Amino acid sequence: MSLEPAIEMLKRHELFSGLDPVRLEVVAFTCERREYTPGATLFEAGDEADCAYLILDGEAAMLARDESGAAQALRLDRGDLIGETALFEPRQRLTTVRAVSSLHTLRIGRDMFQRLIGEFPEMAGAVASRLAGRLSALGEELSALGDRLDANTSKMKKRQGCG
Q1: Does residue 116 surpass a pLDDT of 90?
Q2: What domains, with CATH codes, occur in the chain?
Q3: Gap between the terminal Cα atoms of the chain
């Protein structure tokens, strides 16, 4: 497989959007290509997370359990970046990902990613911007959740004759 499809997909992700085409080519060339047969496991919940995967071709399923223990599945396909938080810090995987079809991926290792951030300041800026955006969105979600919780608490107090 040529580098062009990987470069085009990397370019679409905010983590890599700050890189010029030559540096994107270096990323695509440096990352390991991996292929999986249908049913093969990319990683299991509890495994050490030391990389992310960019799906170049094919389909996968992310499997997890919700708070009640019920199984949940999310379809992943071409262009999806899986496990990107592993690029920033050591942690354990929270989900299991399996190939649904023949799957071609680009494995982006944390060590290589961290080295790129150190070497290319524009990439570090793009990463910082993305993380700031995520934190802002999380703050808004938490604020909205707090507002809903306050409203529900007020309703419960009125029903109980406390308010």
Answers
A1: no
A2: 3-159 (2.60.120.10)
A3: 67
